[in-house]
Structure prediction request, 1352 residues.
Amino acid sequence: MLIVMESAATEEQIRGVIDRIQALGLRAHPIPGAERTAIGITGNHGPLDPAEFEILSGVQQAIRVTKPYKLVSREVKASGSVIQVGGRPVGGPRLTIIAGPCAVETEDRTLAIARQVAAAGADLFRAGAFKPRTSPYSFQGLGLEGLRILARVRRETGLPIVTEAVDEESMAMVEDHADAVQIGARNMQNFSLLKRAGKSKLPVFLKRGLSATLDEFLMAAEYIVSEGNYQVFLCERGVRTFADHSRNTLDLAIVPSVKHLSHLPILVDPSHGTGRRDKVIPLARAAIAVGADGVMVEVHDDPSRALSDGPQAILPDQFAALVGDIRAMAGLVGRLHD
Amino acid sequence: MLIVMESAATEEQIRGVIDRIQALGLRAHPIPGAERTAIGITGNHGPLDPAEFEILSGVQQAIRVTKPYKLVSREVKASGSVIQVGGRPVGGPRLTIIAGPCAVETEDRTLAIARQVAAAGADLFRAGAFKPRTSPYSFQGLGLEGLRILARVRRETGLPIVTEAVDEESMAMVEDHADAVQIGARNMQNFSLLKRAGKSKLPVFLKRGLSATLDEFLMAAEYIVSEGNYQVFLCERGVRTFADHSRNTLDLAIVPSVKHLSHLPILVDPSHGTGRRDKVIPLARAAIAVGADGVMVEVHDDPSRALSDGPQAILPDQFAALVGDIRAMAGLVGRLHD
Amino acid sequence: MLIVMESAATEEQIRGVIDRIQALGLRAHPIPGAERTAIGITGNHGPLDPAEFEILSGVQQAIRVTKPYKLVSREVKASGSVIQVGGRPVGGPRLTIIAGPCAVETEDRTLAIARQVAAAGADLFRAGAFKPRTSPYSFQGLGLEGLRILARVRRETGLPIVTEAVDEESMAMVEDHADAVQIGARNMQNFSLLKRAGKSKLPVFLKRGLSATLDEFLMAAEYIVSEGNYQVFLCERGVRTFADHSRNTLDLAIVPSVKHLSHLPILVDPSHGTGRRDKVIPLARAAIAVGADGVMVEVHDDPSRALSDGPQAILPDQFAALVGDIRAMAGLVGRLHD
Amino acid sequence: MLIVMESAATEEQIRGVIDRIQALGLRAHPIPGAERTAIGITGNHGPLDPAEFEILSGVQQAIRVTKPYKLVSREVKASGSVIQVGGRPVGGPRLTIIAGPCAVETEDRTLAIARQVAAAGADLFRAGAFKPRTSPYSFQGLGLEGLRILARVRRETGLPIVTEAVDEESMAMVEDHADAVQIGARNMQNFSLLKRAGKSKLPVFLKRGLSATLDEFLMAAEYIVSEGNYQVFLCERGVRTFADHSRNTLDLAIVPSVKHLSHLPILVDPSHGTGRRDKVIPLARAAIAVGADGVMVEVHDDPSRALSDGPQAILPDQFAALVGDIRAMAGLVGRLHD
Prediction:
């Protein structure tokens, strides 16, 4: 159920509706909007009666939400959300370009790459300090030391930082050092981590799981939002299929599907989505053309020596060319970038 | 093995090489190029010795082809092929837009749609007279009567016709009435039909099977070319995965993969690739952005009454808008359309 | 719609119902049963009124069939069908074991293998004379010469022959030489071939396509039966997934699903289903345990020299041991062999 | 690298090898065997020289391990592992049957079901106190109260308890109350949770992820073992494919694959693997036939009122019949049950 308040509703009226919801043993989720406030209700086991809420003071309408996801649904919020990451908007008319190496390796290298992607036009910097790796014997990331390097990158380049957390402990450290926390594909249904992210002050960048359906993807976002953190943006990064010409199969059709059903921004990661350098740029262009809110690409200045995922990283000058392509294409899809 | 002739090689020298190949019990496939002729060799069970051919008069070089597909490989022909369909090029700098209804229904309706897509800028007209349908009780197409309607469409609009054949019998009829024959996804590994298409005078439009790998797709094209018909152009139309937000999962990464390995043009069919009208236009744009040689889209002026696949057909004015998008985008990917 | 005749209905009454159906422009499919005759109706575009048929003489009941497949449905025929292949039953209490090499190679080798599998307890002999191969340059089978070898195998061993047809031409030759015609996975939706098989006098062994859903599989069988050939038996042979530890993923759950929805027998092919010799025997056992009507396994006496699919063929003595396992297991699932 | 000690090697010699490994900055994993002790080495970045270890006192041989997984590999331990769960063996000649409801609901119901499955022959009891659910609004399990009920079930029935943990906090609680901890499919690559399980005193029951390859599955087990907990047993529970006739596609071919590559026991869960009651029993039989070390099935005495996964639970008397089937089948695959 979604309670839509009148545009002139007072704080007191809003408070009254929330109190009533809580008195019924339910949970209220106030969603402030540009014109009016809406209040989502969750926790009911059967259907609620709209009349029960429409009689309250300041309420314009009570609407049944028909999807299993509630708070992330377009039914609840018709306009697309814009998430602020370190002062930069994600969603809205401006495209977002996230770039950086797969992992933080050394301070010098990380800074050098960051300066290049900043100069080329990146909006946010990415690099993993905590790396979920298939093998326990692979490089697992620099941990806290990596986060400190990232904090320095931000000071030096002004680029806000997006980096992955893999558990409670790393989440707390990421919160201390970064501007947005990434939940990776392998943790998309790590519900404890999602709930923890829902209590974070940071925006959350949620990547689609390797075999997640659209419903499961939006429900994972709902886990975060239902805990009170509305700052969620999504990422398509390829799904697992029989196809062997790319590492994963990038499923661009999910972009208009998400746009249709949800108000959350969605970006595309063609680096993990293809796993091969020569496909990153064409698929990044395709992602913009299909209507994504931006892209995340891995950039490394010496990919053959990268400690992880070297084959999918593009070079800094390839990245600069890609930014040019994106800017040229932005106008054609009603977007802009600088 | 590929024999590359000197650019000044005479007809007689070329004939001499072919004779030698045949004398060895092998098959020769002369491939005339702008500057020089190459001759593919197939039919050998083990590796051949380049020296055996390099000593022949007029031969510049004999190259081992490392892929299982030979004649469709970029190793054999470095420049992209351009296929002529009713006088219109497919491949090369100009993008190709194929449009029309799923099936030929009535002459009036087919003509009306054809006039609209011609006016909007379509290059080729599509509509099925032979429809492979999951159920034996579904509309199976008008057959020969449908082909006659298509021939009239060509006379009236000037649009060359691409239409599907499903067996020997329909292939012969399509050859009499159309400009290119389509082999559908369900027949991609109907090897008898592929061989028959390889003996056709018509260009062949080969669609990827629902679970075909890249290698299988190129090998299916090789079946056609190995019979002597070099006029083949390919189509990505979505593969079958667990994802349920679109009818198939459109695998755009196969476009740069095909471009890398083969000289054949490849188009994208976002109508079958998504199965839903609201996704056709964004995915068509993405197809151009990823580097496809064109798109094929289903257009119907009354989709709710279409006899097949209505939910994925776009309306004529949506099509006109899409042509505008494609033209605007063409320059950004080094292509053009009008 | 299915018309169930009274058990005492006369030929004349049956004829009367068929005439009425045809007078309505529909198609009648009489299905004689042990106790009574049923008549399937196809060709209607909307629902039919049961009353229209229940008033006819000799009619007990008219039942709406709710599935897209009609004639292969359990709704139409509650008891499992038993198909006769060269005098041997497929379906019913007795399990069926089909064995033989992938392809007919030489007469000596084929006969030698046939004698061994006959001695070990095989019911039917398999070997391909027409081989659908991914590459046009691979061994494509001996064709007519292969069929002649198979006919000799039958004379010498008494084993009925199951072998694949890939088009009209090979179908006619198979009809002259074999006891059942196989439609392979790649042709499961080659609807022209299915219709042709529906006009054959031979029983048809239909293999599931690489990415066929259950509905598509049963609809493919419906294509055959709707042309009048009720002698169809099915085969699960693995589907294509991301899993790389076997060539295909054998989907044994389809066996009880088919049993629930259809009266057609279903066997399992663990050779193609796994592609690896060491998995054939465990999966063959599992196929019997899950309730399949039998198995088809590839047997070769020198797999390392087989012209196709050597890695998945088991040796004759492994086959003999497998027959022993199947016989031991048969009683546990309410079946028998011998 | 795996160091195989002489069978007469002393504790002191073993200690000496471990000291040497640690002095090189590497990690030693002593693996006591019936006849001799082996010591796995991990943590090396490049290949090690066998000679370096073969000169040490008491060492028979140093063997390079060629697989990415080391400690779970058959190369390291040729005989199958037997895991003790509350005094009951998993692995070895005796089959293991795990049964119980999806979730702990009430104490009465849980006890009633437990008594029935104990009487029918279950070896271990399963029921979730922490339920990972797609929706944040679905029943998430009783938590600690559920574990207390499970502890009571063990006291009353003698059945050891297997139950899922989803994070650090629930893991600690499960360790206090249960006999084995389950890591669910959605957490198969939650590497923090795997490492935590590797430090647990409890055996770990690791379920395959929805799109996990064989390598990823064994690497997940390696994460646990590399932390020192060798008590791991695996579970195939179906993977996600296009097939829609069952909830997941049960991939029984992974059982012989795991047996070939790893010494860990592997069970099969046909309840999640099919999602439908009428398929659970045939697939459970197939699992035994294919060589699994046992099955886990969901049993509920009133499935239509179950709080989760009711459609896949079988009834207590169906379970009793299944135990009878398994016992009858055990001898045929060289196993036993009671």
About this structure: Residues 83-333 of chain C form a domain with the TIM Barrel fold (CATH 3.20.20.70). The interface with chain A takes residues 240-242 of chain C (CB under 8 Å).
